[in-house]
Batch of 3 targets.
Target 1
Amino acid sequence: MSRLPNGSGDSSGAGELHPNELDLPAFSLDVQALDLGSEVKALSLEILETESREPVRGKQAAEFWSAVFPLLTAGDPFVLDFFGHLDRVRDFCAAKQIAFHEAGSGCIVISQSTDQQLLQLFERFEGETFGCRAGERAKQGDRALTSELSRRGVDAYQDAYKHYSFCAVCEFEAGWVTLLSEKLWASEVIRRVRPAAQSFDVYISRPQ
C-alpha cells in the first residue's frame, strides 16, 4: 500500500457505491457499529484485502494506521497506552528516542507522538494489543485509568471512555481497531479518515 500523488481519484466511496458497480481498490476499510452491550457505544474499523477479506498487516497497514489516527483525533491531544511486554516497549522507545513515562506498575504512556514515531510504534508492536486515548483529559495524568489498565488491560477503557473524545483498542495483527466513543458516529469517523483512504487508495465501506 503506497500513497497516491495528490489529486488522485477518491476511491473511499464512504459506502455509497456497491462493490459490484466498480473495480475496487485492493484494500478496504470496513467501518461499522459494534455491539458491546447497551451501555457501551463502540465502532469497529477493519482494514482488509478487498478480494480475500484477509487482514492487511505489516508495513502497509502500519503506514495506513499511522495516517488514520491523527485524523481521528482531529487535533485533540492523544496518548498511547501499553500494558504488556513493557520491557520491549522501554527498549524500543529508548533506541528510537521516543519519550514515554511509567504510569503505575504495569502501564507505559507515550504522549503526542509524531507521525514518524506512530509509524515506528505501530509497525514494531503490530503483534501487541495496546490502546489510544484522545481528548483534553489526555493531557492530564489519569492515574485511576492507568492503574486499571495495569490490572485489567483494555477492559478498563469501558469505564473511562466517556471522559475522552475516544478510547481505542488497537489489534493491528488482526487488522482491527475498536473505537469507544460517545462523540463519534460511523459517518463522522468516515469523514475524518477519508483523506487517508484517498491517499492510500483504500475503499471505505459500511457493512450492514
Note: Strands lie at 27-34, 42-49, 78-82, 101-102, 108-111, 130-134, 166-171, 176-180, 202-205.
Target 2
Amino acid sequence: MARGAPSRQAGLLRAAFPGEKSNVDTEAVRDRLLKRREELRQRASEASADLRHEADPLSADFAEQVTQRENDDVLGAISHSAQEELQQVEAALRRLASGRYTTCSVCGEDIEPERLAAVPYTDRCRSCAEGGHAAGGRGGRG
C-alpha cells in the first residue's frame, strides 16, 4: 500500500500511520449519506413542482396570487437549501469513496469523529470551520 493511503478493512476507514485516530464505519456513513441524498432529492423535487404550480395553478384573484408568490419565495429558499446540502452530501460520498472522508480539506488534519457524526457531509475540522487555522479557515461550509 502506498504511504499515506488509507486501508479499508471490514468496512472501516483506518488511518495509514500508527497513532492516527480515524476509525470510521464507512458502510454506516455511506448508508446515512445515501439516505440523506434521497431525502434531499425528494425535497428539492417537491419544492420545484410546487414552484411550477403543477398541482395548484395560480389563482385568478390578485390578492390570492400575492400570497401564492410569497409562498414561492419560501419554496425557492427550501429548494436552494436542499440543492446546496445535496452538493455537500455528494462531495462527501466522493471523499468517502476515495478514502479522504476523514481528512480536512483545508489543513489536512483528521476531522473529529464527533463532528463527522453531527455533520456527516463536512469537509473541515472544527478549527478550520471556525476559521482557526492560519493556512485556510475559509469558513462557511460544513
Note: Helices lie at 26-51, 62-98, 113-118, 126-129.
Target 3
Amino acid sequence: MRRFLTMRRFLWILPSAWLATLLFAAAWVEAHPHGAEPIIIGIAPQQEPAKVYAMWQPFLRYLEREVGHAFAFETAPSIEEFQKRVLEGRFDIWWGNPLTYIQASKRLGYVAIARDTTRIAGLLVTRKDDGVKAAQELLGKKIAYSAPDAIGGTLLVQDYLARAGVAPDQVETMYTRTHDSAFRAVLDGQAMAAGVVPRSFNALDPAQREKLTILARTEEVAPQPFAVHPRLYRSVVTKIQRALLKLNWAPEGRDILAGIQYKEIVVSNDFDYDIHREVAQRLKIPF
C-alpha cells in the first residue's frame, strides 16, 4: 500500500508526456514477465529452417497484432536441437512434437493451449522406381528418420514396422535431422525408405513428391500442440489462445492457417496427450 501511494505522488508531479511514456511501458511489463522483451515463440523445424521461417511469418505478424506484444520467432537447425531448447525452457510458447510436450510438461510445467483438429500420423515412403510393395521388403535395408523421438515420422512408423514383422534391430537406421533431409536420402538412394509426416510430405516440391510413393500410413494420434511456459502471465496466455481461435473466422485467418498447413484450431489441454504417454511407456521412452 505504501509503495502504491508513493507511486501516485511520483506520477502526480510528472509532466504529461513522461506520464504517457511510463504508462505505456507499464502496460508492456504487465503483458510479459520480461518487460518489453519479445515473447519467444519456437516452431519445430519439420522442413528446412529457412522454409519454416517463411511459412510462419504471416502467422507471427497476426499474433503480434492480436496480442499487442512483440514476438521473436525461433526454430533450430535440427529437430534434436529444437527439442533440447524446449527442455531447457528457451521458449515462452512453442509448437512441435507431442512427445517433447509430455516431457516438457512434466519437467518444466508447459501447458497445451491449442492444436489443429487434424490428427497426425506417420508415413513410410519409398522411391517409386525401387518398386517396394511391402514392409517386409525393407528387412536389412536402411531407413531414414528425422530424429529418434519424433512421434509421427519415427515412433509411429517404427511401431507399424514392428507389427509388420520388421523390428528396429532388423534394419539400418539413419537420422537426418529434418524431414526434408529424410526425403532427400531416399531420393538420392542413400536410404530405401523414410519415416515422415503428412505435413512435410505435402510441403514437398511437387516434382520431388511425384518420385515418391507412400508405402504405409500409421494410426492417428493427437497433433502437435501450442504449449506455453508457466512464466507467461495468465492474461497474455488468454490473449494468445483467443487469437489462435480467432483465426478460424478472421478475414485473413484461412490464408494464415493454410500457410502453416492447419485445418482448424481448437482448444487443447494436457489430457489430449495421455495417449502419447501410453505410447512412450510401451516403447520404454522416459518422460
Note: The CA atoms of residues 61 and 211 lie 35 Å apart.
